[in-house]
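Hi D.,

Good news: the full-assembly prediction came through. Inputs first.
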Amino acid sequence: MAQSLDDISRQLKKRHRKSKHMKWLSMSALIAAAAFLVLFLVDMVVKGLPAFQQAYIQVEVDYSERASELPLAAVEADVRELVSRGYLRLIPNRMEADPDLLGTQRMEWVLADDAVDQHLKGRDTRLKDKQIAVIERLVEQGNAELRFNTVFFTNGDSKLPEMAGLASAAVGSVLVLIVTLAFAFPVGVMTAVYLEEFAPDNRFTRFLEININNLAAIPSILFGLLGLAIFINFFGTPRSSALAGGLTLGLMTLPIIIITARAALRAVPDSIRQAAFGVGATRWQAVRDHVLPLSMPGILTGSIIGMAQALGETAPLIIIGMIAYIPDAPGSFTEAATVLPAQIFTWAGMPESAYVERTAAGIIVLLSVLITLNATAVYLRKKFERRW
Amino acid sequence: MQTDQILMMFFAGVLLLGALGFFLGRGKAARTRAGGTHMHSQPDQYAWFAVLSSAGPALIVAFFSAIVLGVFENAFPGWLAVAGALGLGAFGLFVGLNRIRPELKARDSLEQAVKWTLLSAASISILTTFGILFSILFEAIRFFQMESFWYFITGTNWAPGDSFLEAAGRGEGAEGPSGNFGAVSLFAGTFMITAIAMLVAVPIGVSAAIYMAEYAPEHVRTVAKPVLEVLAGIPTVVYGFFAAITVAPLIVSAADSVGLDASFNNALAPGIVMGIMIIPFISSLSDDVITSVPNAMRQGSLALGTTRNETIRFVVLPAALPGIISATLLGVSRALGETMIVVMAAGMRPNLTGNPLEDMTTVTVSIVSSLTGDNEFESAATLSAFALGLMLFAITLALNSVSVMMIRRFREKYAINDL
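Then the structure:
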């Protein structure tokens, strides 16, 4: 059946319309992904920003004889529940450290209980009406205020939300990353150099390559099982220690570093190697003096990206016990430690609303560090990238 | 003596040996050369030769004794190993220095040593794979000696706690001796959440890739790529918090408003958030594949008068299909092994159901909960984690292999080298 030109042009219009729809449809997918990201970031910032402020109240502290034994007696009964228990608990220590305090009374700004903090931030709390009245009085007199939350950055974990901070987890993360880098960087670069510069094309080399690609795709939790079985049960590395965690994460980041380092080595043109061989250099001399220095920016970029990934990893560390309660920063690689994401995980499981806020604030801190790391990597790549 | 003291002593000794080797070796070589003799290599190369012949044997002996000490605890005292290693190092130093002569090819030996060092570093990644495989396998075998393998892969009752009670003689005994470790309900939960994740990730990821590869102007690409990379770089613990605190309550209230009853640990929240996490993996690999479909195919198709849409649908996508499937399989394998999102947002109760609004648990959640509990390591409840890990390893390995095979087929068909 013959079609009229009208039919065909109608069909054509329809086809072009369809084509346009497809464009918009595929674009909306990209917009959806970006919208998720924005929604997520806004959600975290809204939830986390309040945690950067912390309520303090000014109360009269009575350093009496009785207070050194029963710290609760140091403040008046009506504000007793409003002052952080962590502050009260330290009063005897302070009196011991400074004997002159005994018998003095003075107004002091002290850390408030998390309930006061949450109340001032406009959330429902377990406070009784009487206590709320006291808080309102304090606010009117200018004796209660929200200040920048330094505790969050200087304290370790605590069972009291107002005393809980990131410091010990941050130290733990740094220790873990040092071990990870010290292990994964040399081994990864050496593997990459072997595969790119030395390896003959044989079955073993091909097996090695397949194996590295597979390793990159193995779920991270299985590295935790490996760490538990090999480092902790077999070699007797202390459980929960930065050493065990760092080695486990090192094995996990190894494939990333190898793959990026290989790409960087491959980007160095062969003429460089030929020139080196031409003046009588051995393979190792050519690599050490020419190929490696030229590919270093690329290798460093890959390593930073690998480190960023290790910094955000939690699952394998949970398996080897790095979610222990660590109030004080670890002093060595073999002490029990926790890391930033594990700290976030622990706080996320706490029921108090003050912890929800701190979890989100911890996430903001973690994301800022990660973004800084990745931005550094991108900057390095841009700055030292060389087109041959 | 403390382990770290012994280690300190050993490393100090090795450093000392190495330094001695370096300076004595270089001194000897330099003196020989100053005497007018022609030497095969440079003095520094003789120096490094001496270092290798002293520190090398010491390190190798120390490495193997550390492994032996790891297998058999207290087979011999630690100081003995250190003394042996350092003694051999000293002997090596003596031999090495003696061997420094003009005709010694120190440069070639150095080259060989470097090559072997690099090779042994490269072997670490192979050791890691086998380490994962065997460490999981051995513990899993111990588990299957205690519990039935058949029930593990076909049974539906997952109750590690009951096995403890039974071992203590307090179990109700209703399920019999091997009835507490049926992993089917765990895998059902895992597959349900994975399926939800893929329902989110595949359409969005592939569409975004099509847009980026076929439609987007250059400046959109330069913005969109990093945005997707940020999505990929967000730690999973953060996604887990987002799923548990923000998405799950939203889903509960949405279900409420249409009269459905949803649990706060419903499978939908972790599934959707996991899908968002996987979008960038799928989109970036699909993008690479679509852009590497040869342009001649597009030109040929357009020359026949097809619209852009038809070219993409009937020419580009079919050509890129193996790559897209490969990306999807990688995404599935990532979703199966994802831990933090489900630990934080999914339930703890094994639940064999088709309703995504109910709470259900997954393989990875069970691994975490059995290893963070206060059970004894030797108990079946703890070892079950390794049996589950073995399953996870096998499944993800198979998925990855198929994925690699698909991408290789795509590459060979269109003779593309840089993928």
